[in-house]
């Protein structure tokens, strides 16, 4: 059965791969994006998730086209990497406002219809960095770690209404963001990964689709690492 799916930050990288995977399975897929162009074949809605009014308007547009959102993938995120003593307060708060508070905004808005329908799937895209930590990424790691506590609290709060909330924590993924790294840095990263390679965006999308499926109906509050073994034990 075709579902109404929303992927935030879905116009490139991991988000686009997730959106395409749902579309290929026959779902009606909308993506939000802040800059660039909307992806072909998907409902693109321009939206800055740091603005509650824009979030509400985006949901209204999606609901009019596809019906209430039944599957939400909160993927939108930013980085502002720098060492702590060089990190401005704005560097810290802007990353938290997008990655963590932005997720709060979209999940809160989506949950209204899910509660009425007594069903829903929410998947938050965190990061292995949120579990392991990473020098120069205190802001990003804090935002991604916060998603775990947020998801697990909501899993307890919304579970009685048949709404599952799970977290996928990707490791290093082959995207435009990692393509700019030097060959030496890429080799250094791969040397720490037991499987000895980067993930493909499709591998992250597969985990998200599984958690959104009927087969995963009894999984909630889980953190699923898709990291080649990098974060084992965390």
Automatic annotation (TrEMBL):
Gene that this polypeptide is encoded by: fabG
Task: Give the source species.
Answer: Streptacidiphilus pinicola
Q: Does the keyword Lipid metabolism apply?
A: yes
Record's protein name: 3-oxoacyl-[acyl-carrier-protein] reductase
Listed under GO biological process in this entry are:
fatty acid biosynthetic process
The UniProt subunit note reads as follows: Homotetramer.
Explain the purpose of this protein: Catalyzes the NADPH-dependent reduction of beta-ketoacyl-ACP substrates to beta-hydroxyacyl-ACP products, the first reductive step in the elongation cycle of fatty acid biosynthesis.
The Ketoreductase domain covers 3-176
- EC number per UniProt: 1.1.1.100
Q: Name one GO molecular function term.
A: quinone binding
The major lineage groups are: Bacteria, Bacillati, Actinomycetota, Actinomycetes, Kitasatosporales
The highest taxon in the source lineage is: Bacteria
At which positions is NADP(+) bound? 9-12, 75, 140-144
């Amino acid at each position: 059965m075709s579902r109404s799916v929303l992927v935030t930050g879905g116009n490139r990288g991991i988000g686009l791969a997730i959106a395409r995977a749902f579309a290929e399975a026959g779902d009606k897929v909308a993506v939000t994006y802040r800059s660039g162009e909307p992806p072909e074949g998907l409902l693109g809605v321009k939206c800055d998730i740091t603005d509650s009014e824009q979030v509400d308007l985006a949901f209204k547009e999606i609901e009019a086209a596809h019906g209430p959102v039944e599957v939400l993938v909160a993927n939108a995120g930013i980085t502002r990497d720098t060492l702590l003593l060089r990190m401005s307060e704005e560097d810290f708060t802007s990353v938290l406002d997008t990655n963590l508070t932005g997720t709060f905004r979209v999940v809160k808005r989506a949950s209204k219809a899910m509660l009425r329908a007594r069903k829903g799937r929410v998947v938050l895209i965190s990061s292995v960095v949120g579990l392991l930590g990473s020098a120069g990424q205190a802001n990003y790691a804090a935002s991604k770690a916060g998603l775990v506590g947020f998801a697990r609290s909501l899993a307890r709060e919304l579970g009685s209404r048949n709404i599952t909330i799970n977290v996928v924590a990707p490791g290093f993924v082959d995207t435009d963001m990692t393509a700019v790294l030097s060959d030496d840095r890429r080799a250094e990263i791969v040397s720490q990964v037991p499987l000895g390679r980067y993930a493909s965006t499709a591998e992250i999308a597969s985990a998200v689709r599984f958690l959104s499926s009927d087969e995963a109906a009894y999984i909630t509050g889980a953190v699923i690492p898709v990291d080649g073994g990098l974060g084992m034990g965390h």
